[in-house]
């Protein structure tokens, strides 16, 4: 089945509106779709509100979250069983705190950039947040590192989006500053309170092909009660992961998926300028397992 459980709209760091995503997903024949913006459900909610005009498949409410485990930033996808969730829950309250901390973090990163010779303003980054690819205005709910990366490219400080991350704004690079987040155990607890589930996103990202380091973190992640792994993911054009590492890593993932009865999910991590939308296939069995484990009700 054509399924995509991981994509981003202009409600976070994507360059496509929710409407554009829904129309393209419908054109591509996507049967199950989750808009998983960073730290907010606004994309999911908007999709649900306008889906009748644009999309005939199943919509799943979701977000992408990040946390630090043993000093490394790892990403996870959280899915909820219904669009009827409590805005006063701990999860929603902490998501609001995270969005506020992103603004503080961006201002501090800009200070560091200018201290080493760049000339960047907060307004320039904010323009990336609030202007869509078609030149129209868009939501400004989440300001993130990809917005800064686009400014670095536009102003000629780097040639590519990837270079901006690799040389300046990824974890441990000169402009990086951490922000408020939750411990992984807290994420799990608060998502579980809303009867949701958590899936490990793009599990090979961040190891520079160091397989031993990947094994160390995989063994640690699997000690937590996650529900599944984004086993089907296209790393090309997004993360620098060799084919050899992917083959070896997928062999290992298949073993722990079987051992722990994990769900298998598929995500294109579409951002408009990078990633895929409606290009991945997930077996009907895996789709049904996902919907059953989530106890999803449309």
Based on the model shown, name its key terms.
single chain, 298 residues, alpha/beta, TIM Barrel, DNA polymerase, domain 1, 2 domains, 10 helices
What is this structure, in a nutshell?
The chain has ten helices and seven strands.
Strand content: 5-15%
Helix content percent band: 40-55%
Q: Helix and strand string, N-terminal first?
A: EHEHEEHHHHHEHEHEH
Number of H/I helices:
10
CATH class of the largest domain: Alpha Beta
Q: Can you tell me the CATH superfamily of the largest domain? A: Metal-dependent hydrolases
Global Rg: 18 Å
End-to-end distance, in Å? 19 Å
Write the CATH architecture name of the largest domain. Answer: Alpha-Beta Barrel
Strand line-up across the major sheet: 1-2-3-4-5-6-7
Q: What is the approximate shape?
A: globular
Largest sheet: 7 strands, mixed
Could you walk me through the main structural features you see in this protein, from its secondary elements to its overall organization?
- With 298 residues, the protein is an alpha/beta fold.
- The chain has 2 domains: 3-95 and 184-294, TIM Barrel; 103-169, Orthogonal Bundle (DNA polymerase, domain 1), CATH 1.10.150.
- It has helices spanning 18-28, 42-54, 90-115, 122-130, 145-154, 161-169, 184-193, 211-221, 243-260, 284-294; strands spanning 3-7, 32-35, 58-69, 72-79, 197-200, 228-233, 263-267.
- A 7-stranded mixed β-sheet has the order 1-2-3-4-5-6-7, sandwiched between helices.
- Strand 5, helix 8 (211-221) and strand 6 (228-233) form a beta-alpha-beta unit.
- Helix 1 (18-28) packs across helix 2, helix 4 (122-130) packs across helix 5 (145-154) and helix 5 (145-154) packs across helix 6 (161-169).
- The longest helix is centred in the middle third of the chain and has 26 residues, at 90-115.
- The chain is globular, with a radius of gyration of 18 Å.
- The two termini are 19 Å apart.
């Amino acid at each position: 089945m054509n399924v995509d459980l991981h994509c981003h709209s202009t409600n976070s760091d994507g360059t496509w509106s929710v409407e554009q995503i829904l129309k393209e997903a419908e054109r591509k024949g996507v049967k199950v779709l989750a808009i998983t913006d960073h730290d907010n459900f606004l994309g999911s909610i908007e999709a649900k509100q306008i889906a009748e005009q644009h999309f005939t498949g199943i919509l799943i409410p979701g977000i992408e979250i990040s946390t630090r485990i043993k000093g490394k930033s790892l990403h996870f996808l959280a899915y909820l069983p219904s669009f009827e969730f409590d805005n006063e829950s701990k999860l929603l309250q902490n998501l609001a705190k995270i969005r506020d901390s992103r603004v503080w973090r961006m201002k501090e990163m800009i200070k560091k950039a200018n201290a080493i010779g760049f000339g960047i303003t907060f307004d320039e980054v904010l323009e990336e947040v609030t202007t869509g690819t078609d030149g129209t205005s868009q939501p400004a709910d989440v300001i993130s590192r990809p917005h800064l990366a686009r400014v670095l490219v536009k102003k000629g400080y780097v040639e590519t989006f990837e270079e901006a991350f690799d040389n300046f704004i990824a974890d441990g690079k000169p402009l990086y500053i951490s922000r408020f987040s939750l411990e992984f155990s807290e994420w799990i607890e608060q998502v579980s309170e809303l009867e949701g589930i958590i899936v490990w996103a793009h599990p090979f990202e961040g190891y520079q092909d160091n397989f031993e380091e990947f094994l160390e973190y995989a063994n640690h992640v699997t000690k937590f009660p996650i529900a599944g792994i984004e086993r089907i993911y296209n790393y090309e054009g997004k993360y620098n992961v060799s084919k050899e590492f992917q083959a070896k890593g997928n062999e290992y993932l298949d073993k722990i998926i079987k051992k722990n009865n994990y769900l298998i999910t598929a995500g294109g991590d579409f951002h408009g300028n990078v990633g895929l939308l409606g290009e991945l296939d997930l077996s009907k069995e895996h789709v049904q397992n996902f919907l059953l484990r989530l106890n999803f009700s449309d």
